[in-house]
């Protein structure tokens, strides 16, 4: 699942390429009777209204809230005269397990959208599961590739952003300007006897962290993933805070992690997967200097956890 760095990389790409472009059409093949009445574009009736709402709007900008992409729109004000009383809109996208956006020129071939370019990154097999596609005034498209069809997309009036359940429940953002060691410690203390890796991935405690980056920050801080937050010494929590910021910053700088199927909006893989110290390195020697441990794998809350049994101490 795309985590904070992958979502931020996507948001940065949208802001670079799409600001000011007008949405002229929207297409989807998500249509599923199972989602009837669930308030997202997988419901055919909802998508019909969604298309009416966003068509004619221009992209203002995008931002990230946890693992959510928020694409802010002008509303359907096409001229200064018709703009009076227009309500700005926001499209919320959660990429879930296998979703990511790609930007370029597409054409409909039969029932599927295909990139016009005959080669290049948009032809990457991971980019070809198009479930949602926005057509813009410049003739290009923003396509949502989602192999497993888990993605979530809906629209709301921007003024209501703080009342949206997907936003309301989010914990503090580890990359937020005001995020501090104190805030992190206070949030972790809300699950004093939990398994630390699982607590780090709880979006109501801290937003944006998932499986990959929790492994990497715990490895860097030298803390076992099954440690109880209440038992971890303050000096170790401080190391975790520093590791959290460093690992997430590195993830953003490297354009995200493409160990699985994440790609940026140009269809290109990120590079963080080439610098894993623990994640999916089961059976390999721990890369920490002077450590002779071998990376092990355990299951924590139904998810894989990778750690060094030598330098990562269990509290």
Descriptive report:
- 23% of the residues lie in helices and 22% in strands.
- It is α+β, with helices and mostly antiparallel strands.
- The chain has 2 domains: 4-65 and 67-168, Alpha-Beta Barrel (N-terminal domain of MutM-like DNA repair proteins), CATH 3.20.190.10; 181-307, Helicase, Ruva Protein, domain 3, CATH 1.10.8.
- Strand 8 (130-136) and strand 9 (141-146) form a beta hairpin.
- The protein is globular.
- The chain starts with a helix and ends in an 8-residue tail after the last strand.
- What is the strand content? 15-25%
Percent helix, as a range, is 10-25%
Shape: globular
Give helix and strand order, one letter per element, not per position: HEHEEEEEEEEEHHHHHEE
- Main β-sheet, spatial strand arrangement: 1-8-9-5
Number of helices: 7
Mean pLDDT: 95
CATH topology of the largest domain, by name, is N-terminal domain of MutM-like DNA repair proteins
The count of domains is 2
Radius of gyration: 21 Å
CATH class of the largest domain: Alpha Beta
Distance between termini?
28 Å
Structural class: alpha+beta
Brief descriptors of the model:
four-stranded antiparallel β-sheet, Helicase, Ruva Protein, domain 3, 12 strands, 23% helix, 7 helices, alpha+beta, N-terminal domain of MutM-like DNA repair proteins
Compile the SSE list and pairings.
Elements: H1 4-17, E1 23-28, H2 44-54, E2 59-65, E3 68-73, E4 89-94, E5 99-104, E6 106-109, E7 112-115, E8 130-136, E9 141-146, E10 152-157, H3 165-168, H4 181-188, H5 196-200, H6 211-221, H7 234-253, E11 296-300, E12 303-307
Antiparallel strand pairs: 1-8, 2-3, 3-4, 4-10, 5-9, 6-7, 8-9, 11-12
Helix pairs in contact: 1-7, 6-7
């Amino acid at each position: 699942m795309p985590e904070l760095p992958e979502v931020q990389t996507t948001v940065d790409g949208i802001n670079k390429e799409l600001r000011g472009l007008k949405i002229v059409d929207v297409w989807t093949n998500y249509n599923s009777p199972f989602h009837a009445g669930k308030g997202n574009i997988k419901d055919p009736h909802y998508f019909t209204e969604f298309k009416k709402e966003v068509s004619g709007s221009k992209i203002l900008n995008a931002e990230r809230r946890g693992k959510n992409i928020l694409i802010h729109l002008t509303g359907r004000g096409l001229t200064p005269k018709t703009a009076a009383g227009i309500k700005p809109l926001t499209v919320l996208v959660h990429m879930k397990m296998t979703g990511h956006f790609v930007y370029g020129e597409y054409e409909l071939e039969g029932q599927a959208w295909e990139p016009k370019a005959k080669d290049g990154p948009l032809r990457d097999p991971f980019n070809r599961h198009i479930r949602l596609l926005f057509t813009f005034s410049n003739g290009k498209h923003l396509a949502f590739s989602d192999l497993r069809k888990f993605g979530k997309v809906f629209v709301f009036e921007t003024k209501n952003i703080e009342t949206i359940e997907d936003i309301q429940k989010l914990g503090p953002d580890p990359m937020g300007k005001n995020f501090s060691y104190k805030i992190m410690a206070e949030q972790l203390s809300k699950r004093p006897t939990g398994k630390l890796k699982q607590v780090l991935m709880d979006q109501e405690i801290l937003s944006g962290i998932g499986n990959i980056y929790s492994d990497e920050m715990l490895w860097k801080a030298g803390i076992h993933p099954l440690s109880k937050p209440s038992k971890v010494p303050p000096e170790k929590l401080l190391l975790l805070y520093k590791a959290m910021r460093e690992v997430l910053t590195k993830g953003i700088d490297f354009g995200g992690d493409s160990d699985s199927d994440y790609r940026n909006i140009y269809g290109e893989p990120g590079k963080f997967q080439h610098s894993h110290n623990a994640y999916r390195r089961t059976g390999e020697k721990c890369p920490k200097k002077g450590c002779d441990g071998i990376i092990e794998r355990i299951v924590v809350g139904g998810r894989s956890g990778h750690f060094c049994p030598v330098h990562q101490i269990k509290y």
